[in-house]
Write a structure and sequence with these properties.
Bound molecules: S-adenosylmethionine
Radius of gyration: 23 Å
Number of helices: 10
Largest sheet: 7 strands, mixed
Number of strands: 18
CATH class of the largest domain: Alpha Beta
Number of domains: 3
Length: about 400
């Protein structure tokens, strides 16, 4: 296996970040460093305090505002782990944590590596029935992790079948796989699908909604390839409607219903804008027992937050209007810039604008294979609020 050079380039901090780096903060912005370093992407660096004491090791990104992603920190006298051992150990530990909880015969699609929260900054790896789909956050990570395919294969060993490793940003050709998620089958398009195939972060929430769906009608807004609706239909929902603006996603949803031998007569599939769909449904006086809203991020950057709040509020007003009295509204946000309290406020005010009341039951997050660590709150992005609308 090609090995990463073990001669780290020294990098001096300009700002006093020693404490937060020791506490696990994985990102060091360029403006926190003394100027002048000109290193190649992926170079191993040793971050030193302003007075030159070694503090952490990480890798360099030549262009990103995040100049260094920290791999390991340690106080005076700390012996840093060699990089091959460190990466191999962390890939294996991340896999152990997943395999401890998952029965591969029942669920063979999961996030194996969740970047910073698995102490492997800058890399995500999703597993789909024998294929790993990798995403690098920038050229530094891509260069640093280099021979990742060999490393993943070594970590998988005999515990996990692995026949392909695909780079999400360099996908081509066709790779469609059938996966199983909590006993439900899905076709995933690894070459062209959004987020590398399935939105794995919602896996536990799909199951949670399915557990409430028996005999009920369900509206699956921003439904992608049918996930929430198909789980609900398997759990004997009376009727489902799935809405997504992407026609290929709706076509994939139809195939997923068929794959699970579900009756398409009670599965509405609508390739249209969710806001338009809701406006029309309100005009027709249509309502559902359970409404799930899982839009794409409305705030990719901080300065988009005010507009995102408005969009959420409008969406929640419309969604509450089509929720049957006593029904359930399940509202998701994957915008890390919109905090939990802010997001809940958009539900409260949207529901009130619809002339209805909202009683929050619980706010869930991403599935366990998308862990969150205190030192990296940016990773705590998914909110899934479940509550009754009266
Ligand atoms: C976060 S994903 C939903 C994942 C899905 N709930 C699941 O469990 O697989 C967001 C989806 O919203 C769709 N979308 C984006 N804008 C939309 C719009 N204006 N109306 C309807 N769907 C939209 C995207 O095509 C994407 O499939």
């Amino acid at each position: 296996m090609t090995s990463v050079t073990e001669n780290p380039a020294p990098i001096l901090l300009r700002k006093d970040l020693a404490r937060s780096i020791r506490q696990g903060q994985p990102w060091i912005y360029r403006d926190a460093l003394q100027p002048g370093d000109d290193l190649p992407d992926g170079a191993l660096v040793e971050v030193r305090t302003r007075d030159g004491r070694p503090l952490a090791r990480g890798f360099w990104d030549a262009r990103s505002p995040i100049a260094v992603r920290v791999l390991e920190s340690g106080g005076p006298g700390h012996r840093f782990t060699d990089i091959e051992t460190l990466i191999a150990g962390r890939l294996a530990a991340a896999l152990d944590r997943r395999l401890d909880r998952l029965d591969l015969a029942n669920t063979n699609a999961f996030r194996w590596v969740h970047g910073e929260a698995d102490l492997l900054p800058g890399i995500h790896a999703d597993y789909y029935a024998g294929a790993a789909v990798i995403r690098f956050d920038g050229a530094g990570a891509r260069a640093f992790y280099g021979p990742i395919e060999e490393r993943l294969r070594a970590a998988a060993g005999s515990r996990l079948p692995l026949d392909a490793v695909l780079d999400r940003d360099q996908r081509g050709g066709a790779d469609e796989r059938e996966v199983i998620e909590d006993g439900v089958r899905f076709l995933v398009d690894l070459a062209h699908g959004q987020k590398g195939g399935l939105f794995l972060d919602q896996r536990e929430n799909r199951l949670l909604v399915a557990g409430r769906a028996r005999g009920k009608s369900l509206l699956n807004l921003f439904g992608y390839t049918g996930g929430f609706a198909i789980h609900a239909a398997v759990a004997c929902a009376r009727r489902t409607d799935t809405v997504d603006i992407a026609a290929p996603a709706i076509e994939a949803a139809r195939r997923n219903f068929e794959l699970n031998n579900l009756d398409l007569a009670s599965a509405g599939l609508h390739a249209t804008d969710a806001f338009d769909f809701l406006t029309q449904a309100i005009k027709r006086g249509e309502q559902w027992d359970i409404v799930v809203s899982d839009p794409p991020s409305f705030a990719a950057k901080c300065d988009a937050v005010p507009a995102a709040r408005q969009a959420y509020q409008r969406l929640h007003r419309l969604a509450a209007s089509v929720t049957r009295p006593g029904g359930l509204l399940c509202a998701a946000s994957c915008s890390s810039h919109v905090g939990r309290a802010d997001f809940l406020a958009t539900i409260e005010s949207g529901v009130r604008q619809a002339g209805r009341n909202w009683q929050l039951e619980a706010v869930y997050g991403a599935a366990f294979d998308h862990p969150v660590i205190a030192a990296f709150p940016q990773g705590d992005y998914l909110k899934f609020a479940v509550g009754a609308v009266s």
